[in-house]
Amino acid sequence: MNADGHGGQGPGGKALGKLLTKNRYGAGPIDPNGKLRFAGVGYLNTQPILHGLLQGLGASRLLLELGRPSEVARRLFEDEADAALVPAAAIAMHGGLEIAPGIAVGARGPVRSVVLLSERPVEELDTLLLDSSSRTSVVLARLVAAHLRKGRALTVYSRTPAQILAETRGGTGAVLIGDDALAARGRFACELDLAEAWQAWTGLPFVFAVWGARRGVLDESVRALLSASLEAGLAARTEIGVSWAEAHGGLAAEHERYLRENLHYELDEAALAGLREFFARAAEAKLLPPCEVRLAGTDATTPAAGRHDSRGHDSRSLDALLDFAAEGGRLSFDEALRLAEDAPTLDLGLAADARRRALHPEGVVTYIVDRNVNYTNACTVACRFCAFYRPIGHGDVYVLSREELRAKIQEVVDAGGVQVLLQGGINPDLRLTWYEELFVWWKSEFPNVALHALSPEEIWGLARLETECGEPTTIDEVLRRLMAAGMDSLPGGGAEVLTDRVRRKIAKAKCTSAEWLECMRVAHRLGLHTTATMMYGTTDTAVDRLAHLFKVRDLQDETGGFTAFICWDYQHDQGVKQVAGDTGTVLYLRMQALARLVLDNVRNIQSSWVTQGPGVGQLALRYGANDLGSTMFEENVVSSAGTTFTMDAQQIERHARAAGFTVARRNMRYQWLTTPS
């Protein structure tokens, strides 16, 4: 366990190589029936594109599932879909996708369904609330707002559509998309149609969504199916309007008018120019990775054709890509995967170290004096990798008493410590009021000892427990009550690897990756600072691990609430059911270096010497880390699996100085508490 995350197998909590799924670059579908897996967004604006497919066209060739834009993009990134109708930004985020030629969801004037709503003109706003379900619309909104405000920044927060409507007033504006935007028109004094604003600014159409796929999926026959589906949908816009009105309300004629007058479905040269311009401006603003459009089935219509190798990778040299990342360039998923597969370990370390120096030019390594306290080992989640937990009713189950806690906290105070990381299992005997009373007692006894407490899994567990006991409670309510009682920050435990393919295998009773992220999103909205963690080395691949990093980066773009990132490999020596996958020192150093290069918006990277040992922890300071975590004079979770490294403050400082750094103590927000020396 480390200071801001958790042990390798807590109840809450080989080199990367070519660890790719078989079909990663177009080797064929992996659906058991041999069909291609397609995903699409189920909004009104996509219905003409999907119409033929939804009516059964191509059913012998492909399966189609619908979801929200962010979910559809996730499926494509995590190889749960072979092709998807995705927001345009997802093409840049991934970096290795081909686009189906000729088909898009676009606008050449007012689109009506992507709007900035406010009581005042955008030039007079100070805050902007964003519906983050489509990154394309979010990036477009930020670009247009910056243009209209002549570069003056807005404070940006992510909200749900319901929260947006409730909180938009005065100097706070909001961006809504899709059906929510259509329903909200006319409710605010100022309405800025973002597609219309884009065209007025650039003179070009705007492209919201395209078919994207791994290289080789969109062959001639598949492209013909997609074109036929759109042709059928364009002919059926009257029928679609009627069906949509019956299912979702509104006037059929208005729906049809929207499809005919506000949306354009041709990806022609003008639309391609608009798409390239969007990618260029978003990359310049560091909102998206640099991206060139690559059309399936052609080598001539786009500059990207000559920039990719036989696997679809950008053909720039590894040195050029490493230099780009070291200088703070935003990596795409495909670029990060290329570094994971091909970059020499030393070169990765040098790039990560250069990025660390740019972010922390003062050359100071930080650490915190605190301890981990595991208040109970009773847990109902029963993760396969956990050696620490005990099932309910087991003879070794414990819950620490106030007297035991007082003694542990006093030791922290006596050592000059400022914080305790409090975490335990999902214990159904401990209701929310138990935690509230504990936290109130804690702050009355030790007002200067910060509570870095619980984890997303424990927060979800409390919300479920209260609801099961007849008191329906949301994670928002749980967090608010715990904050009122004294909780200061939220650790990032229980993340493991944030792909559900992995989570279903190693911890099927645990919250989903989306739930973990949503808990962090809510915590950030409430003003809590948190950490992000990753425990890898079970059944995960390089694709899974990079998907995890990109989800952390995406949420940090939304909220800015993560203070640090910490990764470590699965500690599996004793008492666990899960067989280890890819672990070891080389992979750890590579993974941390990749994290430093991918997470361009997370300022601090913590070395996990608790799992890797002091020597490797020291070396990690030259692989992107700027922090040595906690003094850790108690740790129960990692040690349950046989890993028992320890260091006190003097040893931490000695290791940092021996690596060429000065040292300062810090708090959870990475504010220095001592003068570097």
Strand content is 15-25%
CATH domain class of the largest domain: Alpha Beta
* Helix/strand structural class: alpha/beta
Rounded to the nearest angstrom, the radius of gyration is: 26 Å
The CATH H-level homologous superfamily of the largest domain: Aldolase class I
Number of helical regions: 26
What count of structural domains? 3
Ranges with pLDDT <50 over ≥5 residues?
1-28, 300-313, 635-643
- What do the pLDDT scores average to? 87
Largest sheet: 7 strands, mixed
Shape: globular
Percentage of helical residues? 40-55%
- Total strand segments: 22
The name CATH uses for the topology of the largest domain is: TIM Barrel
- How many angstroms does the end-to-end distance come to? 27 Å
The CATH architecture of the largest domain: Alpha-Beta Barrel
In short:
This protein has 677 residues and is an alpha/beta fold.
Q: Can you offer a commentary on this structure?
A:
- This protein folds into three domains: 36-81 and 97-104 and 207-307, 3-Layer(aba) Sandwich (D-Maltodextrin-Binding Protein, domain 2), CATH 3.40.190.10; 114-204, 3-Layer(aba) Sandwich (D-Maltodextrin-Binding Protein, domain 2); 355-665, Alpha-Beta Barrel (TIM Barrel), CATH 3.20.20.70.
- Mean pLDDT is 87; it is low at 1-28, 300-313 and 635-643.
- The protein is α/β, with parallel strands linked by helices and 677 residues long.
- The radius of gyration is 26 Å and the shape is globular.
- The protein starts with 35 loop residues before the first strand and ends in a 12-residue tail after the last strand.
- Helix 12 (318-326) runs parallel beside helix 14 (345-359).
- It is built from 26 helices and 22 strands.
